[in-house]
Each structure stands twice: as C-alpha cells, then as structure tokens.
Amino acid sequence: MQLLRLEMKGFKSFADKTVVSFSPGMTGIVGPNGSGKSNITDAIRWVLGESNVRHLRGQKAEDIIFSGTEARRPHNTAEVNLIFDNSDGTLGKELAEVVITRRMYRNGESEFQINKRNCRLKDIHLLLADTGLGKDSMAIIGQNRIDAILNSKPEERRLIFEDVAGISRFKMNKEDAIRRINSTDRNMERLDDVMSTLGDQLVELEAKANVTREYNTLSQDKRSYDGAIAFHEYKTADRLFTRQENENLSYLREQEELETSLDTIQETYKTTQNELQSFRETNQSMEDEYATLQGKLGELTGQIEVARLKEANMVEELKGGEEQLRTWKEELKVKAQQYDCDLTSLKDQESNLTSIGQDVKQAESNLQSTRDSLSQVKANLDGMRIAEQHAHERHIRVVRELEEARHQLARAEELETQKKDDAQRLKATLQDIKQSVEETQGQLEAQQQVVSKVEEALEIARQSLQQLEDTRRQKNQELVEVQRTLQAKEGRLELLHSWEELHEGYLEGTKNVLQAKETWSSHIRGAIGDVFTVEEKFLVAIETALGGAIHQVITETAKIASEAVQYLKRTQGGRVTFLPMDMVRGKRLDHKALTSPYVLGLGVDCIQFDTQYTGVFNQLLGRTLIVDTLDHGLALQKEYHQQLRIVTLTGEQLQPGGALTGGATKRKKVSILSRKEEQDTLQQDIHVLRDTAQVLQQTLQGLDKEIEALTLSGKGLRQTYEQEELQLRSLQQEQQRSQGEQINLSGMVQTYHEEVQKVQDKQITLGENIKSLADELSQLENREGHQEQVMTLVAREQTLQDREREQNEELQEVRLRWEQSRLLLEQSKKELAQLEQYIKDKEVNIASLDRRLSQLGEDVIRLGCEPALALESEKQAIEKRVAAIGEARKGGQEKVRTWELQLSQLQEERNQQEQRQRIVQKKLVDLQEGLTKYQLQGEQALEQLGALGYTKQEAQNIQLGGSVNEWKQQQMNLTRQIESLGAINPNAIVEYEEAEEKLAFYHAQKEDLVIAKEQLEGVIAEIDGAMSEQLQGVLTEIREKFQHVFSQLFGGGTAQIVASNPELILESGIDFYIQPPGKKRQQLSLLSGGERALTVIALLFALLDYRPAPFCVLDEVDAALDDANVERFSQYLHNLGDATQFIVVTHRKRTMESAHVLQGVTMVERGVSRLLTVAFDEVKENSDYGLSLIHI
Asked: Helices 1089-1106 and 715-781 sit at what angle, rounded to 10 degrees?
C-alpha cells in the first residue's frame, strides 16, 4: 500500500485543481513561509477524517474553503482526493487503486466517498483501521503536534500505542458493544417502569373486563328476546294487514262494479231521455194540429163545452201536479233536515280533526324535547367518559414524568459533586503552572539580551547584501511574472487539449458516439466541428451558419449510422444526427446573387476540409451566402425577394421568407471552432515566453553567484543568530504554552463553577417540577365524585330513553287517529256535496212544476163559463178529425208513459246503487285506517329488528321456549340485570387482552435484553483480554526500540516508556522518562525545544520501526533541530524510506538533500498557492527565509 497522489481543489489557498504526486521513499515539500506548504498536510489530515477545525489551523468549518482574493471570487466547495496504490491488497483485493474523497460546501454540508461512492466517516475509519493511519496515530505530525504529544495526558498518549498495536478495530467493536449495553440498560429500565405500571392497570382492567363479559352475555340474551318479540309483533301486524288487505280488495272490486253499474244506468237513463225528447219533438206538429182543432171545436161546440172539457183535463192535471209538488216538497224538507244534520256533523269532525292535529304537534314537540335532552345527556356522558380516559392517560404520564424527574435530580446531585471535585483539582494544577511561568520569565529576559546583540551584528552584514538582493528580487519578479503567464497559457493549452480529447463542447449524444468502443467506432469519421478548419475572419459566420449541425456526426455508410443509433437507444446516450457519406450528396447554390460585391462567397468556400467530405459540406453550407455586413445582407435579401439564406461576418442570419436572427449571449467556454484557433495562438505565445524566461534565469544565475560570495562572509553570524534565536523561540513557546495553559485552566475553573451553578439551578427546577407533578398526581387520584356524576348521567339517559319510547308510541297513536279523522271528514264532505246537489236539483224541479200549475190554474179560470152553442154545425164536421187525432195522440201518450216509467225505475235503481256505494266507501275508509295502523306496526317492528342487527330470516330462526308473555317477562328481567351492572366500558375486554399481551411481550423482551447484555459483556471481556495482551506485547517491543533510536539520535542517554497501571493496561497512562547525555533525568516540559522535538521524532521512528505505516507526513518537525541533529534526523529518514513513504515539509537544506523528489509550493498570485517543480541542486540558503527557489 502506497500513497500515489493528492488532488485538491478549492481547499484553503489551493483555489485551482492541484495534483501532488508522491514517489516511493521521501518526498520533500519546500517553499517560502506562508506559501501554503502546511495546507498540503492539512488536506491529508482533513480527507482522512479530521473534524476539529482548530487542528487544521482554522476557526470555523468554512475556513477550509478558498475564501477568495482581490482578483478571485470565493469558492463554494472544497474537495480533496487521496489516491492509494492497493496492488498488495491491504485495503481489499477488489481494486488496484483506492480513492478516498471528502467534499465540503459553504452551507456546512459535507460528504465522504470511497471510489466515488458515498460513504460514512466511520467507513473510512474502518477501512484504514490497523493500517497505522488511525485517527490517533503518529502518521501525520503537524507543526503543533510535537507539543501536543509531549503535553498530553498520560491516558491520551496511550491512544498512540493502541493505534500502533492495531487494536483500533477492537476498540470500535468494544465502543459499539458498550453503547449497545447502555442502550440495553436504558431499555430495561423503561421496560421495568412500563411493566410496573401495566401490572397495576391489569387488575382494574380485569374487573372491568369481567363486568363487560357479563354485560355482553346478558345483552346477547336480551337481544334474542328483543328480536323474537319484535318478529312476533311483525308477524302479527303482517297477518292482520294481509287480512284487512284482502277485505279491502273485495270492497274495491265491489266499488268498481257499482261504479260500472252506475255508469250503465246513467247511460240508459240518458238514452231513454233522449228518445223521449226526440219523440216529443217529432209529434209536436200533431199536437199543434190537435190544439188548433180543439180550438176550433171549442168555438164550434160552444165555449162552455170546450171550457168544461179543458177545465176537466186541466183540473185533473192540476190535481196530479199538486200531489207531485207536495211529495217533492216533503222529500225536499227531509233532505234539507238531513243536510243540516250532516253539516253540523261535518263541523264537529273538522273541530275534532283540528284538536287531534294540535295533539300531534304537542306530541311531536314533547318527543323532540325529550330527544334534545337525551342528546345533551349523551354528549355530556361521552365528554365525561373521554375526560376520564384522558385523566387516566395523564395519570400514567405524570407517574412516568415524576419518576424521570426524580432520576434526573439524583444524577444532577452526583454531577454537582463531581464538578466541584474537578474544580479543586484544576485550581491546584493552576497554582503549579503560575510558579513555572515566573521561573521561565527570568530565563526569557536574559536570552532576549543575547539575541539582540547577535541581531545587531547580523544587521550590518545584511545591509551589504541589500543592493544585490534588490536587483535580484526585481529580476526574480520579472521571471515570476513570465512564469506565471507561461503557466497560465500552458494550463490553458493543456485544458484545450483535454477538451479536444474529451470532445468537450459537444452534446451528450455526440460525445457518447465519439467515445464509444464498438466494432463500428472505426467507421465514424468524426463530428462536423473536427473535420474542417476556418479562418478567424469567417469563424463567427461559419459557427452561426452551422448552428446545431456542428454536433452532427459523419459516418462512412448509413448502416454504420443505424448501428450507432441503436447503441444510443440501448445506452440511453442521447440523440445525434448522422451524415452517412454514401447518402449525403449536397449541391452548391448556383444563383446570380453570387456575383454581388457584397457576397464573400458560399459558406462551403470559406472553410478548408478533405475533399471526401465535399458532399457533406455542400449539404450543410453549400446554399448559404456569406456577406460582410447586415445592411448589405438586408439589401441583397430585398433585391431577391427574401429567397436566400444569408449569414453576416458578425453572426446575423437572414432566412428565406424574411426572418432575421441576431444578437449576442455570454459564453462560458470557447466554441468548438474558436478553440482550434486559440490553440495555435497559445503555442506561439508559449514559445516566446520560454525564451524570455531562459534569458532571465541566466541573469539571475549571475546575480546569485555574487550573492553567494557575500553570503559566505555572514554565514557564521547567521548560524550563531539562528541558534540563539532558536533558544529564545523555545523559551517563548514554553512561556506561551504555560500562559495558554494558565488561561485555559482559569477558563476551565470558571466554566466548572458555571456548570455547578447550572446544575444547582437545574436541581431547583427539577424540585419544583417534582412538586408540581406530585400535586397533579394527587389531584388525578382524587376523582371519586366524577364516577358518581357518570352514574347519575347514565340513569338520566335510561329515563330519557324510556320517555322517548313512550312518547314515540303516543305520537304514532295520535297520528293514526288524525289520519282516520281526516279520511272520515273527506268522505263526509263528499256525501254532503252530493246531498246539496240533490237538493238544488229538486228545488229546480219544484220551481218548474209550480210555474206549470200556476199556468193551469189560470187556464181553468179563463175557460170555465163561455157559451157552447155557437157553431154547432162545424162541431160535427171536425169531431171526426179530432177523434182520429185523439186516437193517434193516445198511442203516443202510452209510449211517453212507458218511457217515463222506465226513467223512474232507472232513477230508483241509481239511488239504490249510490246508497250501496256510500256504504262501500265508508267501509273502505275503515279498512284503510286498519291497513295504515298495521303497516306502521310492521315497519316499527322491522326497524327494531334492524336496530338489533337482525334480518327477518335471522329473527325467524330464533328459538326460544315458552309463550310470548313469558318472553316479555324474561326481557324485563334481563333489562333490570343489565341496569344493575352500571356504566360499561365496551372496550374493556380488548383493553385487558391487549394489556396481557403487552405484559407478556415486555417479559419476553426483557428476557431477550438480559441475554443480549450477558452476551455483550462476554464479548467485551474477550475484546479486553485480546487488547490487553496485544498492547502489553507492543509496549515491551517499543520500549526497546525507543531506547535504541533515542540513543542513536541523541548520541547516548536513556529513554523509558512506563505504564502507570500495568495491571489495567487499557486504562493506564503512558509516561516518558528522558535523560539526554550528560544531563539529569528531567520532565518533558523542562527539555529544550530541540530535545523535545528530537524525543518525539525518536518515538515516531521507534513506532515506525515496529510497524511501518504506509506513509508518514512530517510538517517542519526539524525546525528546532541544530545541524548535527538535522543530519542524524535526515539519515534516519533515509534508512526508513524503503519501508515507509515519507512526506516532509521542511526549510532545512540537509533534510532536502535526503529527499528523492522535491515539490515546491509558491504564491505567484497573492492568496493562491501553486505547485512547482524545484531542482534539488539549485536550492540555496536564503537570508530571508532559509532557502531560495533558483530554478523553477
């Protein structure tokens, strides 16, 4: 396993994509201070999962994203890729290379990837576990890492050895097991609470369930009796209804027969009347002649005889008429009396109907009032039951919250005691640090005086170099500018080449076809944009003329195009237009407009291409005219009546028909056509810049030789200054560290006091909460009066239900009476109307007869005493005629009497039929009342069956012993027993069974949790044993290696690694006891800066000697070493280079000489780091920052 390269983009000062390649052995990272070298170290730490931004020398997470400069905008994303060579299968045997990626956005979102697949940070830790690259390893030592290691707590140092021992994966498994045990304990506590509460509830639920079971049994029995009684009532009502209905049908048939008979009588009556009237009209002439002869006869026989004869006839007729008139008047009087009687009866019936209607309204009002009261009582009862349920649930929650609050209060009290103890320990440590700060301050003041004297001497030497340095700096700046321009142009040229190779700029479908590796791919000639060139003058015009056609692809044959289309369909690769060379045969435009001075030619003439593509480009550009300006194009289009396709040099396009396209848009990238032109220009510029850079480099070489001669004279002073400055810096760092610890400890003490206050405040809050919950629990437990209210409402509900049933029956009875009265009233009104019409008809007949009798009386008086002797002779002459007419008249009168008799008989028969009809109608009314009553009873019985959940078939199958009266008695007994049970919870059985199931389930869960906890504890014990054994072995070996490396680096001395608690090695701290050659054994904090750094380096080399890491990053760890120690450090790096890949950030020449490859970091643009190649033999000492980059 080896680190191949590091890729960064947008990470800190590396704004552009930067690739740092690492070779086997040692790679040196060099460059001026502030150029961004340590950002490479930070990038490696960050991609491996470092989450503390302060360890990456930042304040907040977004500090790792490029923040922009005066010339550049800030980036929104930082991305780092770490590529490993996995050919040895260390990270799994699936892939030869493993890429770890971390990406972060400015909004704070972050993501990790392994081989371009999203993953968790934990997955990366698991991947690198036991490789020596764990989060606690020493594989990456930054600028502040040495002090952090030496100043860390003994327990924290143990983590370094655990990582080397390869027990990181064990620790992860153990931590996971401990989390699971803690989770199991919490679950078991919750289960115990729930089971305890549920057990208390189960007793009450069982009692309620037993009551509900008894209620269900009684209700089921009562339902059977209710159903049987309701079905019996239905059958009784149905049987009576059927009997009444049959009788009703019989009377209906009789009524129809009577109506038919009356119609026949009426028809016969009218026919006879018509015959009589017709006969009378027919014999009217004979009557007229008879009357005339009678008159003449009277005149002839004498007025007396005529008068007597007429008088006799008239008297006889008058007597008969008067007798008839008396009969009719008597009959009319009887009918009038009957009418008055019926009218009085009708008014009584109407009054009775109104009274019954009021009774109906009153009954309906009473029923509605009762129902409203019942609804209100039910609503109140439901509300109280819901409130009771809520109170019960709240009781459970309050008990749980009270227990939780008490538990939290106990934990808060423990935490308060712990915090107070920690604060006391911190105060003691703070006092020791204050004493150390005072001692260091005296040493620091003395060293500052020494450094000031050496610095004055060095300043004199520096002034003599200032003039040459200024000249060199100017030339160097010119060279940097040239190189920056050269790098930018080379980068641009490389980008254009990569675009060309990747077919950048083409549509997705075109790119997929050009990049395809199919059998037909060799027959693809290329995209349109790749097979021709164009002068810059015509670039815009040709690009406009082609438009989307530039993405079209040329194939040798149509078959190849078809295979490519199938490939795109199969891979969902997009859409492409193909131009098969065997089918596309475009023709050039031949038009007189080509002779115009405005026309620069056809589009196909303005490009250069292989002649084999002539047909294709004739098709695309052979009919497009290129003109110089838009005005000339418009004039040309107008001249030829908008028949041409014209494109101007500036990109305006005129289509046949008059359409005009123009304008401009911003371009994010260069176009496909302009890219080729830009490549040629860049190659020419790069050649010129390289020549200029070479001249400047030669000038700088001459200046460097002069500077080197002057530098040698000041070298001794500089070495002395560096040593004294290094000692001063070490003392300052020690002072700063101690002061920082003092500030941190003071802050921690204050923080502990604040936390203690917060814990105390929390205890007060929890105490108040416990009191509030206890009060609420007491209130919830004292709800005895609520049950009495529920029982009162249940009794009230039953009373209202009984009242509702009684009032409903009363309403049905009143409605039935009202319906009977209404039908009887209608029948009486009908009979009264018939009687009234009969009286009117009689009165008309009486009036007519009365007028007739008055006329007869007058005629009798007028003809009574006239002489009868005149005209005797004529009497005999006409008597024969009168006798003859008399005979004829006598026959007609016989017919009239026969017809009148027949009419009288018909009238009598009609009267009898009408009398029978009235009787039948009254009977039908009575039957209709019975049918309505029995129908209502049947419907009510069916409604009752439906309410009970029975169908008629199910109710018919109910088998009960005894009589109906016994059923009703048993029904009443069951009702009393149900009422005696009181309020019933219908869900009590289900709730009890669910509670039993939950309790059993919780018992089973608890057993599973106990078994799981025992198994996890066993696993942890096994892991602890394995880790302890492995860590003990590692410590034994590393002790020897640390002593060996320490003595080599220090030239003697002793170094020991001691476990503070060997019996519990996994909880023990690790202490170092160091004794440099010729000195007493000292604490690590009292060593000099160089000794401290060299001690950590010795520890690192010992760890790498025991277990080589794939790579190791050292960031300026040699800064505090003198030349002799740097020499030993470099030699040791060189010796370990075969087993471990080293990446060293350094300013020291000797360290650079040990490197196999040097990578230079510089800022050619303010705030933006660039990676440059640095020639090793041209690295020189520099008076400003230790080295100078001579050749780049």
From this structure: 70
Mean pLDDT (whole number) for 464-471? 76
Place of tokens 């006391």: 424
Q: Assess contact for 16 and 487: CB atoms under 8 A.
A: no
**Pair of tokens at residue 556:** 């040798």
What are the φ and ψ backbone dihedral angles of 915, each rounded to 5 degrees? -60, -40
> Do residues 589 and 545 touch, judged by C-beta distance below 8 A?
no
Spatial CA neighbour of 607 closest among 551, 546, 650: 546
Nearest to 1112 by CA among 119, 163, 167, 116: 163
Give the length of the chain. Answer: 1192
Radius of gyration over every alpha carbon of the chain, rounded to an integer in angstroms: 63
* Beta partners for residue 50, in sequence order: none
Tokens at 406, concatenated = 């008490």
d(CA 121, CA 119): 7
C-alpha to C-alpha distances, 560 to 254, 507, 513, 575, 581, nearest whole angstrom? 101, 20, 11, 15, 10
For 503-522, write each residue's pLDDT tens digit.
667 777 888 888 888 888 88
Q: 3-state DSSP call for residue 524?
A: strand
Category of 1005 on φ-ψ map: left (φ > 0), alpha (ψ -120 to 50) or beta: alpha
Higher pLDDT, 520 or 1108: 520
Backbone phi, psi, residue 972, to 5°: -65, -40
What are the pLDDT digits (tens) for 739-776?
776 777 677 777 767 777 887 787 788 788 887 877 77
For 688, what's the count of Cα atoms within 13 Å in the CB-facing half-sphere? Answer: 7
Question: CA torsion sign, 978 to 980 to 981 to 985?
Answer: positive
DSSP 1189: E
- Give the chain's count of helices (H) and strands (E): 22, 26
Amino acid, res. 495: L
> Which residue reads 């860049």 in tokens?
682
Residue with tokens 């010129």: 688
d(CA 157, CA 1099): 11
DSSP letter at 481 equals H
CA 59 to chain CA mean position, Å: 36
Q: What CA–CA distance (Å, rounded) separates 863 from 312?
A: 11
pTM above 0.85, yes or no: no
**Rounded mean pLDDT, 355-378:** 82
φ, ψ of residue 950 in degrees (nearest 5): -105, 145
* CB of 942 closer than 8 Å to CB of 234: yes
Q: From CA 1056, how far away is CA 1074, in angstroms rounded?
A: 7
Closest CA to 699 of 884, 910, 476: 476
- Letter for the amino acid at 681? T
Contact 482, 1192 (CB under 8 A): no
CA–CA separation, 467 and 482 (whole Å):
23
For residue 607, the Cα-to-chain-centroid distance in whole angstroms is 57
Say if strands 1188-1189 and 18-21 run parallel, antiparallel, or are unpaired: unpaired
- Please tell me the distance from the alpha carbon of residue 978 to that of residue 983, in angstroms, as a whole number: 10
Spatial distance between the Cα atoms of 227 and 942, rounded to a whole number of angstroms = 10
What's the CA gap between 1168 and 74, in Å, rounded? 11
* Amino acid in position 852: R
Q: Where are the alpha helices (DSSP H) in 502-576?
A: 508-514, 539-546, 558-571
